[in-house]
Specification:
The structure is a homotetramer.
Chain A: H1 7-37, H2 46-58, H3 75-86, H4 92-95, H5 102-112, H6 115-126, E1 131-135, E2 152-156, E3 159-170, E4 177-185, E5 196-202, E6 208-214, E7 227-238, E8 242-243, H7 249-285, E9 287-288, E10 291-292, H8 297-327, H9 333-358, H10 360-363, H11 369-379, H12 386-398
Parallel strand pairs in A: 1-4
Antiparallel strand pairs in A: 2-3, 3-7, 4-5, 5-8, 6-7, 9-10
Helix pairs in contact in A: 1-2, 1-3, 3-7, 5-6, 5-7, 7-8, 7-9, 7-11, 8-9, 9-11, 9-12
InterPro entries (chains A, B, C, D): Acyl-CoA_dehydrogenase, Acyl-CoA_Oxase/DH_mid-dom, Acyl-CoA_Oxase/DH_mid-dom_sf, AcylCo_DH-like_C, AcylCo_DH/oxidase_C, AcylCoA_DH/ox_N, AcylCoA_DH/ox_N_sf, AcylCoA_DH/oxidase_NM_dom_sf
Keywords (chains A, B, C, D): FAD, Flavoprotein, Oxidoreductase
Subunit structure (chains A, B, C, D): Homodimer.
């Protein structure tokens, strides 16, 4: 249970921090400007391309990916770096080619893809030449219950035919998102967790229709490809596009979600830290009723409460990373659920209070707070709502004979 | 302490409810469509004009305004009607000509305006021929402390010269907002609450510069004229544009804020009721893990908690209205502060849980919830942040000899 | 919906307040002294007898009981008086002969008793010559679900034979508690809510065995007869001791619980008011780090939050009383559940913060706070735990077609 | 940052756990019986003596004390053992001679005592032949602000004369508490943190008067010597009884409080774990409305929330211990404050919910929950109320240039 970041991790995090301060944070206004110039477009903006080139040149690239294809960091090593990227979720993860959903998709291809699949899709993703999307959630059912999934993947000779509707396919509005990993049912009569399969669907396959972009609290998240609703209308792909085999979909999803969830938590810590830092600066500079806000007891209490939550939860994230590294994602499931619930909630609360410190500026675009809030709020829904995880954790806790 | 709505109030609220169900709620998609068609414009959309014409014909018009110029309702009579309008804050208040900030501005003109000011500005506002804005908050200071205000209103012969910068001037992006009520200092050396004055500034006065629109979370609130930052650069207006006299600004602001705050609370109750109703419908129709969400204990608890809070707070709003009607706004200050703190917070919490019930749909534009959330959230900042009111209430409560 | 106390209520509450200030609060140390002198006894102490004599002489007697046997107050009229008694729950309710469980038992006898039952038990209870207990909760089952009750009431010729075990029979340690109202099953095979009956069991009936006193946190509540566990071992009573008829037990319990619950809430408001008043006085008199506690922002915020909750919840209690008076207890069930949940919780929270203001004195016997806390905490369990009521309220709220 | 307990710690904690299960938990009813037999006495009961003998024989003795006088464990090594003792705070800490306030007093003597002081007082304390008390808090002032202390320690020739009043002197009702460490002012005009000194006062010194025992939520805590109010009336002790030197009192108090606070937190984790375990068992065995409580969503959510908080906070406690071991108590002050605030609060909340799961049994003496609750609640007051620590933490967090 040694959570101390090793030398490589310390060095990378420090490097990332410098990169953040020198290149990423100053580039945020530039991103806004480029977005304002081309309001109808969803592709990656030049400022991101420039940051990517620089980051790659500096070795800050694919840090999320264990193994020889990526930087080879353990989860524990990656944690401090990922937290740094959370300070600027619109730019930093993309700059380092560590942005969801591409990270999870690369992991799937890395862990379960055939050599041909890897050559076709993983290689360009690792170089950020293309983007990808993950098509799991459906508009018509509660998708946290995988047995609800209605999209069908039907075998037809050498092909599979995909029919269904997905939404919240993050990044899919970006025309560079060349491939979609689609979850559907190959056998609705199989065991509960063997009904589902995953399949690779090229964006340009006939029958793929981008229905519309979705918004999140008014934001279209255009800077990272938005969130799409997609109709799959009798889309036909070669049988070799299946990932793993028929019935492996649920297991692959679980494997993908573990790292995905902890990455979100690592970044959420950074989001909350930035909110705390912004609030602290503001509280020192604003005065009301004869004192700086930082001298008001209530503001101090908020700052203390935020600090306490972050310190405790960061340790839980690190422990979870360490468990994933040492006993595997599956046996770290309980901890993953715990941080999946607790960290976004803490971030949401801390950002909300930072907004309150800023007043009107806090809800506007003059600070990153409102957009950070929206992002943190969504984490309580994405990858399964809090309530599903709480119920699962609680059931385990109440189980007769649960270890004490 | 009789809070029962009288016959007129019951009838008006029922009428408003029918109007809401038959005309307003069905018009929401139309508003979205019209907004989408003309993305660069800030003026009132045709759907609003149509609703206004119909509402006015039906007598649902200027219901907020006591006295002969308006419907002549008491605060208590108005409360149930205003709550109905909260179900559709983007359309219903405007449809009934009961939308902030015009309501508050009309009250100011009604209560403190000269006959000439009333003829020039109140008359067209009462007919919705023009819109208005209220310019109080400033970007550079904590404006909840009125002594911080930096805008100057300097007498120069028969004129006043206004210099300063305001923001969160709601509605001011709308080119039809023909007049701004501006708060500034005429005498920085006067007593704390006699430094400020209010003055009428026509939109087209030289030196008035609309700097930019502000966003709230990701929303630009284009449907009701947005929120503007405005520079007043040596703006010269006739001396008779002053409202009341020099030094009356703080008192007028206080007089304006009482009704403004309770109206916000009345509408916030309606916002929360709509969220509860939407969540209930969704919880009955969605199934996960073998049961409707409405059968899950946690969801039931949320619904119960929301209902309890709303029932208790509605009564406090009604009591406050009754006090304003019977002992005056000034002596109802404590209660106004209490609801100003408690109601938006309750609405925020109830809407947040409704979002959680909906999952992804809740944060998107497919439900009104995310936008309602943003509106409720802002109420904890607008007209003074919660913390200022809590501190003031707490000081009174702890005062030696406070009545028990 | 007129909640204003009428003249009689105003006068009685003012009278009760004077009585509280002049006689009850000063008698609290005397009660402690008398309890300390006779540690092994459970009967009513002389100080209570003296207060009763005085209160009865002044007309502050049996105020809880509607109809000709009592003061004839409506629930709405009684509310302000009952709140006053909550300031000193150990003495004031008993002084006015308005203490649970006697109040509920008198109501049962009043509403459902035969003339003979009333003569034998109601008459002396109305004069405080005897005390009584209510035997409903059982140690071995979750008694909030009435179908769980295991005590049997078996007809045997002209008698009933009662067998079972009860606990939390408040007041039953007092040897003056001459009669117990016992809930048991006469027909386990009847409909869910027709299985139970209520029967009068004299304390001295053979087979009644007081097993032991229970404590609440560290308190034995000796001042009002404690809380007993009681074994009923083949206790034989005349058949005419049944209240109403066989199968009426559940309905009678429901009828009894409505007033019982609202009385608890009325008193809980008074408990919380006293805590707020004590905290305010302390906050003005204690200094730390250069300022009175009352000047600390966090303390002010607590005071404000407490005040807001109490003001809103008092109105909900009054509305509930008014509903009970006008449409009947049954149709006020939803509101009764709401206040049953919300008021004790608010009182608990307010008292907890008052304790924190006092520090060590707050948890000790030097202030009434710790004992008030224990009492408020128990109200979240007594008469059904919060969770049962929340679930019931939530189910109603989520019901398809629930009125909005 | 390696928090993993080493082999010795693992072994000791496992040993302690076995000892707890086999000897301590079964002895709790025996303690109750012995207390009931001798209600007027405050001394250590035979059951504790027996457990002490056995624990000492097994090597579970003085584990809290670093260095050669004790077990020589680091804080990190001690943490898992201390947590085990928290399962039975009335018996286990005393059994292992690891109970407050003796632990802190032994640390003071160990770290700051002269050889003579150590021989006279530390030696018998290490063997549990005597007990001790710590006299810091005063009834008349807010003692969290050390400048408020009113007790005077006046030099008079070869003696010091102590005059003042202390309370919450835990353990001091026990006649075996042979020595008191008293904090007072030797120089009220010195610098803020050099005014105070500490001095050893034998219980039998003339002028020491035990005024009365204090209660905590009705408990007198007789099992570990209660809490005394003590008057020091011109108590004269030899000058060599001073600890350190004049003016060292504040620094010694700070040194003492660091370990004291973390020990409380370690035990509080164990208290909360026991509450969770009891609640889980109860939730599985109780049924209401057709299901075990453990199948109710709300109960599951509680269990999950409790687990998450404990897992995160345990890590923060371990990190704090590790910091104390590696960089010293002084530089771990921020973390000590953080856990001092967060852990008791979490324990209080978890125990409160466990009480709710148990209903009436939860507030009674049939479960340890109510007494655990009272103990956890007091931890939010003892050693400085939460608010003082929150304010201090918040100030540090908001400091300009605080590290991020």
């Amino acid at each position: 249970m040694d959570f101390a970041p090793d030398a490589r991790s310390v060095e990378l995090a420090a490097h990332a921090r410098v990169f953040l301060d020198e290149h990423v944070l100053p580039a945020e206004p530039l991103l806004d400007a480029q977005l304002a110039e081309t309001p109808g477009e969803w592709n990656v903006r030049p400022v991101v391309r420039d940051l990517q080139a620089r980051a790659r040149a500096e070795g800050l690239w694919n840090l999320f990916l264990p193994g020889e294809h990526g930087a080879g960091l353990s989860n524990l090593q990656y944690a401090p770096v990922a937290e740094v990227t959370g300070w600027s979720p619109r730019l930093a993860p993309a700059a380092f080619n560590c942005a969801a959903p591409d990270t999870g998709n690369m992991e799937v291809l890395h862990d379960f893809g055939t050599p041909a699949q890897q050559e076709q899709w993983l290689a360009p993703l690792l170089e950020a030449r293309i983007r990808s999307a993950f098509c799991m959630t459906e508009p018509d059912v509660a998708s946290s219950d995988a047995t609800n999934i209605e999209t069908s993947i039907r075998r037809d000779g050498d092909h599979y035919v995909i029919t269904g509707r997905k939404w919240w396919s993050t990044g899919a509005m970006n025309p560079d998102a060349a491939v979609f990993i689609v979850m559907g049912k190959t056998d609705p009569d199989a065991d509960r967790h063997r009904q589902q399969s995953m399949i690779l669907v090229p964006r340009d396959a006939p029958g793929v229709r981008i229905v519309r972009p979705l918004t999140v609290f008014g934001y279209d998240d255009r800077d990272h490809g938005g969130h799409a609703e997609i109709a799959f209308e009798d889309v036909r792909v070669p049988a070799e596009n299946i990932i793993g085999g028929e019935g492996d979909g649920f297991a692959i999803a679980q494997a993908r979600l573990g790292p995905g969830r902890i990455h979100h938590c690592m970044r959420a810590l950074g989001m909350a830290e930035r909110a705390l830092a912004l609030a602290a600066a503001r509280a020192n500079e604003r005065h009301a009723f004869g004192r700086a806000l930082s001298e008001q007891g209530v503001i101090r209490e908020w700052a203390a409460e935020g600090r306490i939550r972050l310190e405790a939860l960061r340790l839980l994230v690190l422990k979870t990373a360490w468990l994933m590294d040492t006993v595997g994602n599956r046996r770290a499931m309980t901890e993953i659920q715990a941080i999946k619930i607790a960290v976004p909630r803490a971030a949401q609360s801390i950002i909300d209070r930072a907004i309150q410190v800023f007043g009107g500026a806090g809800v506007s675009a003059d600070t990153p707070l409102a957009e950070l809030y929206a992002a943190a709020r969504c984490l309580r829904i994405a990858d399964g709502p809090d309530e599903v995880h709480l119920s699962s954790l609680g059931r385990a806790e109440l189980r007769v004979g649960a270890p004490r």
